[in-house]
Amino acid sequence: MKFRTLFAAAVIGAAGFAPAVTAAEPQEVRQEMMKKVGGATGAMAKMVKGESDFDAAAALAALTTISEVAATYGEQFPEGSDTGFESEAAPAIWTDRAGFDAKLAEFKEDADAAVAAAPADLDALKAVFGPLTQNCGACHETYRLKSS
Amino acid sequence: MKRLALGLGLVVVAGAATAFMLTAPRPVAQERLEAITALEGDPAAGEALFWAGGCASCHAAPGAEGDAKLVLSGGVRLKSDFGTFIGPNISPDPDAGIGSWSVTDFANAMLAGVSPGGGHYYPAFPYGSYSRMSDGDIADLFAFMQTLPASDVASLPHEIGFPFNIRRSLGGWKLLFFTDAPHVAVSDDPQIARGQYLVEGPGHCGECHTPRNPVGGFVGQSWLAGAQNPEGEGVIPNLTPGGKSISGWSASDIAYYLESGFTPDFDSVGGSMVAVQKNMAKLTSGDRDAIAAYLKALPERANGWE
Q1: Would you give the distance in Å from CA A107 to the centre of its chain?
Q2: Domain ranges across chain A
């Protein structure tokens, strides 16, 4: 009984504490999100380059990951999160928020279209991979600064 | 006393005369111009140089994509510590562009930074790199540029303050910094040598990737070591094996980045390099491999912005 109470208290305590642990700074959250996109892009790029075999399920999973990131990525740029935690966000995100949001919307649209296409072979993947990944540079051209 | 004043006066006059002579625009040597004129330019070969040289990045209309990059109407604004340079119209329009130029005029601009009227160009036009280009490449590029569509959009004046708005002062800049000498010892390896030609010559990579002193010359011993971004915040990465920017990349990583815009982690190209990478994607894979081989062979340098 005592053990159970302690256990329950520990669970409740952990649950209460958890948000504080996971509520990372937006700079870190968005960096993690971009790393996910990088991982998903890399998995598909290896197929496109012929370094790994085409795998429809893996390709769809990668596209889905990218679409999910694109859906909420814009929320990770609140005012005041422009610097710190090795952020490479450009000031233009905040001085030209509409332009940034428009780029994100295009990214989301292309990602959703790629998921909907559900590429069944390598040629179908190549057909969505190029247009989708054009978004990377198109946004980084204006809204990301290199710090090293 | 009178003699001393006279002597000093003579020294001042002689000094001013010397400065005037030293800052005079110097076109390409006559024999070389004749050799270039004698060549038959190949427009198809010239197109490769057009992309390697990144001409469209400054001379196409701002934001131009696809075939619009071939219309060299000018208008791109290039911010610098000296003011804002605005890319002029270099389309084949005889009035608004360079349609009335001879290949000699073109060679003087590209190799010596001298205009048809005999004045200095600002080195924002990277003749400090183009000066390393071969006679054949100058003739081929000129032949290609004559095939492009003409545009009658007027060039805009640069927005440059005193004293940099005095073009004659560029003679001093040239005297101190303008050279066609190699930036690193030339390699015996033909692939590295080809990469060196592309990077130090038409590709003009060092113009952004090398730090500059307050009067716009490259900082010695910092070739391609990266620099503060002259257009604003952030840095231009260190391309030597001495920094952490790309020192962990293999030659094939570098070549793939130039082809696709992806880093080894599948991060992407950004900033001004987006336009450059699109140009590099149009080179042959052999040329991208050569650029990578040259970068891997560079001497290590500490980050140029620190």
Answers
A1: 11
A2: 26-143
